[in-house]
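Open question from group meeting: does this chain pack into something compact, or does most of it stay loose? Before anyone orders reagents, we agreed to write out a predicted structure and look at it together. Recording both the input and the output here so the notebook holds the full record.
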Amino acid sequence: MFSLRWLVFSCLGFLVFVWAQVFPSLETLVATPDDHRVMDRAIARDRALAFAENRLGVSPADVAKVDLTHFSDSDAVGYFSKYKLKDEYDQSWDERFPTDVYRADIRLASGGWVQVSLQMETGKLVAWKRIGGAAAGASSNPERDAAGMLAQWGYDLADWEPVGTVATDRATVFQSRKAPIGEAKLQLLVKPGEELGYRIVLPASFLESIHAQERLATRLSMLGYIVPEIVLFVLAVVYAASYGSFTSFKRGRLLAALYFVLYVLFTLNMTAGLRSKSETGLPVSGQSVQSLIVVNAVILGATALLSYFAAVGGDGLWRSMGFSLWPRWREADYGRRVLRSVRQGYALAFIVLGAQSVILIALEKLLGSFTSSDASQSSYNLAYPWLMPLIAWCAGISEELLYRLFGIALFRRWLTGAARLLLRREPSRRTTAALTFAAMIPPSVIWAFGHVGYPIYPVYSRLIELTLLGLLFGWFMLRFGLMAAIFTHVTLDATLVGTQLLFDGLPYDWLSGLFSIAMPALAGGAIWLLHRSSRAAGGRHGSPDRLEPPPA
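Structure tokens returned:
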């Protein structure tokens, strides 16, 4: 029963989410003039080619290929975020030395590459580099020649001091004489005729701590997520075979296939995002990107199989314990229950969004947590940003089938079985409820370990956040059923994605953002219409399952 109390909590969660996560982005967008909105990818590409022709002498006829990618200096973003220096950075450095750029890798038919980096809002040229081709001859006085090049490109030499060091690629280094931001210093890299770039030099202690966190995240992902995921795969196959008689092996086939197709489409849409993972500064070959896509497709295929077996095994386990959490298409009221799950999903998603906002604020205050950037997940690296909401369905389908439907059922079966052996009788209802709650913890923790690789520090802050949210999702599934949990998860992610699209500054992305937020309702309505049409056409429909929900 979805009472008024749930609606009150939903409204409170929505207000907290808007206050904590929407208003800050809205204030930034309103305060940003129209000529400082992020450029469209096509405009950025054309502007980069124009700079290459007019400033670097690249003939349009010599251009064989152009790859445009959003790159981000995640360490610098993290540093300014951690020490609350972003406003100072935006006012002092962002115009000419941005942490985030559009970089065009232009392959020349005559040989070699030219890289052109643009400020993403103003479109100004901020860095360039020639790679391969005919290299400039060695200079007898590199520092003097580099200073002359800086003057030629409009830099005031009084603001820059040669530091007497040479970068790894033999570029001469100049350091800004102006005050640093915090302990971050600004340097130019100059190689006459070949390179004019910059870098933000961060304190060694900060970089060491970030890299230590990244190593920790890798270990936690391996031990807490990848190994348990393999074990869950084996267990899902075993329990699907053992409890398949309680359900149907048709369960989950469509959802698993939908997950695979949507995620492959999303991966193909983010080829630029795959290029952004390169840390060498060199252009990424198309073959390397294709190899990553193939590897991802194989992993996604395995995950789709895992989702399928988790669907069969999880539904079989629950039904063997006397509970029905997942209605069947042949049931007469299936369409109506889908619509009810959609309504519940939106209300519950707002509760989760509010809880997440409170958790994030608490983690920032108590642990000093902060976020960095990940250009591989950026909407600016999507060929078609309006396809970004697809990721919400991928997460909502696979994760709810595995960690909630199967994971909770598995641990509940084990815990109640162990209690039965110890007590030599059926555990009481109160004991069963406590064991059911305990059964929600392990799959929630495993799910949380799968997200520690995100650029949020310290890495265990994401572990705390997702474990708590996983318990909420588990409770919602036990209370309202699997479909409500899936729609809650999808609506949560679709709202977060939609908010990102609403405020990313790209033309027309606000329409994609609105579509993302409305997408779960549109999908639920389509399923209801399809089911009603199927009934009208004389499809077979049995009576609905009316098994009691498990103690939650």
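Observations to bring back to the group:
The two ends are 14 Å apart (CA to CA).
Residues 213 and 459 are 6 Å apart (CA to CA).
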